[in-house]
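Hi F.,

I've been meaning to write this up properly since the lab meeting, where we talked about keeping a consistent format for the predictions we share between groups. The idea is simple: the sequence comes first, exactly as it goes in, then the structure tokens exactly as they come out, then a line or two of notes. No screenshots and no reformatting. I'm using this chain as the first example so we have something concrete to point to.
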Amino acid sequence: MEEKEEYIVNITPEAESFYYKLLENLYSTHTEISASKKGDEILDLAHSLKYQPKSGRIEEQLKYLDKQHRFLVYNLTPRKTIKIIYFIDEAEKIVFVTDFFPCLMNPDSMMQFRGE
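Output, unedited:
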């Protein structure tokens, strides 16, 4: 049986900060059980990149950075999603998760959520 290639998943300090802001919002808008479950599922999705780092689509809005950023989507509610933004260092076999980005129908309103 062929062994799957493994990558290291590295959540950057900035992404970790965005994740904690996301958790704060989840715990203030959901039940404790729901918020905990969704927080765990989001991290599990990020860590799934260990075996399938190219499963996400290319993030067109970040092409200017020349790192071929990709994203996975977690459906938080029917109107809200979380984009897990990342790029791959093929030489080192590391996936760098750089953001947990909340999205609505109107992305400008989410910038207010993140305090930007």
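Notes:
The domain at 8-113 is CATH 3.30.2310.20 (YaeB-like fold).
Helices lie at 13-29, 32-47, 107-113.

If this format works for you, I'll send the rest the same way.

G.
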